[in-house]
Design brief:
With about 350 residues, this protein is α/β, with parallel strands linked by helices. The protein has a single domain (about 5-335), classed as SGNH hydrolase (Rossmann fold), CATH 3.40.50. The protein has helices at about 65-70, 80-90, 105-120, 165-180, 180-190, 195-200, 220-235, 250, 255-265, 275-285, 295-300, 315-335, and strands at about 10, 15-20, 25-30, 35-40, 45, 60-65, 95-100, 125-130, 240-245, 290-295. The strands form 3 sheets. The chain has a 5-stranded parallel beta sheet, with helices on both faces. Strand 4 (about 35-40) and strand 5 form a beta hairpin. The longest helix has 20 residues, at about 315-335. The protein is globular, with a radius of gyration of 20 Å. It starts with 8 loop residues before the first strand and ends in an 11-residue tail after the last helix.
Length: about 350
């Protein structure tokens, strides 16, 4: 595991790693510097107001990976921060959003987080964000051993001299320097995009889920089974919940997809960007798992590339604002319901 900002993570039983609690730091990204703070549980919070989330009139749980951890924006512009503000203003009550998302997490960790949190706190609703870019996989473990995140430290002669160590001790520190100098970063990445992509030294890549040859892969059913386990944990506590499907930029931006096909020499007839809708979503429906797929809204013709960063293909502030806008009505209806029912019954 290569983590650039290892000062914000610590080893954790079952989860592998987690946010350090009570953080107050700054993270340098390609386009800007972001304030990053956590509370005593390690949840990301605002750095500009009372860090306490006690005495709440309502509480929402968010589970997810780097898209919801939102290292690219300040908390106030993240989906969690925007929902917290919107729901509180609309209801006239103090609504707290517990953002448990951690960069690099996957459905195995989603299940563990959901199970732990519903045993510790009472929630009015829960959102689990599923990123199509890498969350669908053939998971073989039910948990992960605690591990110390790899430091991004330059070493001229890393030992052992392996590809992994070259990446960790040569390329990662170089990327760290580039992030401190955004214009240099943009120039180098744009100039050498093809080479870096082929060497897998950039975060952008072709998601396997769009390749037609992978239609029968067991990863589809394994992932849906893991998500169903999370839904059972929430249902047993009578917590209304919704799975939110997030698309990678290459699915919603034609330009990005065309570039990928050219760089990787992939013929057009071997790709189906909507394959997940034909294979994965029916599995969720068969299990009565409630979900909303944001692909069409985020990828509409009037919004090409608008919601993703120029370099880091995660949501920018507009992407988080649109996500919050689309989800807020469902949360508002749940909070207004006097006795919400679970979306599905536990088996």
């Amino acid at each position: 595991m290569v983590v650039i900002y290892s000062d914000i993570y610590q080893p954790a039983v079952e989860l592998g790693y987690e946010h350090k609690p009570d953080l107050r730091t700054e993270i340098a990204m390609s386009d800007s510097k972001v304030d990053y703070c956590t509370d005593d549980r390690g949840d990301r919070i605002s750095c500009n107001k009372d860090r306490s989330k006690k005495n709440c009139d309502g509480r929402i749980l968010i589970v997810g990976d780097s898209f919801m951890d939102a290292l690219e924006v300040n908390y106030e512009k993240s989906t969690a921060g925007l929902l917290e503000k919107m729901l509180s203003e609309k209801s006239g009550r103090k609504i707290c959003v517990d953002n448990t998302a951690v960069a690099g997490y996957d459905p195995v960790q989603y299940r563990i987080i959901a199970k732990r949190r519903v045993q510790q706190l009472q929630y009015d609703a829960a959102l689990i964000f599923v990123y199509l870019g890498n969350d669908i996989d053939n998971y073989r473990a039910d948990s992960y051993p605690a591990q110390v995140p790899v430091e991004s430290v330059f070493k001229l002669f890393p030992r052992p001299f392996s590809l992994e160590n070259i990446y960790s001790h040569w390329f990662c520190p170089f990327k760290e320097i580039l992030k401190q100098h955004s214009q240099l970063s943009i120039l180098i990445r744009n100039t050498f995009y093809n080479t870096l992509s082929r060497l897998h030294l950039m975060s952008e890549y072709i998601p396997w889920i769009i390749l037609k040859d992978n239609k029968a892969k067991p990863a589809w059913s394994r992932t849906s089974s893991l998500l169903n386990q999370s839904s059972v944990e929430l249902s047993e506590k009578n917590i209304p919940y919704l799975f939110v499907i997030l698309p990678p930029s290459c699915i919603v931006e034609k330009r990005v997809m065309n570039d990928y096909m050219k760089f990787y020499s992939i013929p057009g007839d071997s790709i189906d960007i909507y394959q997940y809708q034909k294979v994965f979503l029916p599995m969720l429906e068969k299990m009565s798992i409630p979900y909303v797929d944001l692909t069409d809204q985020i990828g509409s013709e009037k919004n090409p590339g608008r919601f993703y960063g120029r370099i880091n293909k995660h949501f920018n502030s507009e992407g988080h604002a649109e996500t919050a806008r689309l989800i807020e009505p469902w949360l508002t209806s749940v909070l207004q319901s006097p006795k919400p029912s679970p979306p599905i019954q536990s088996p």
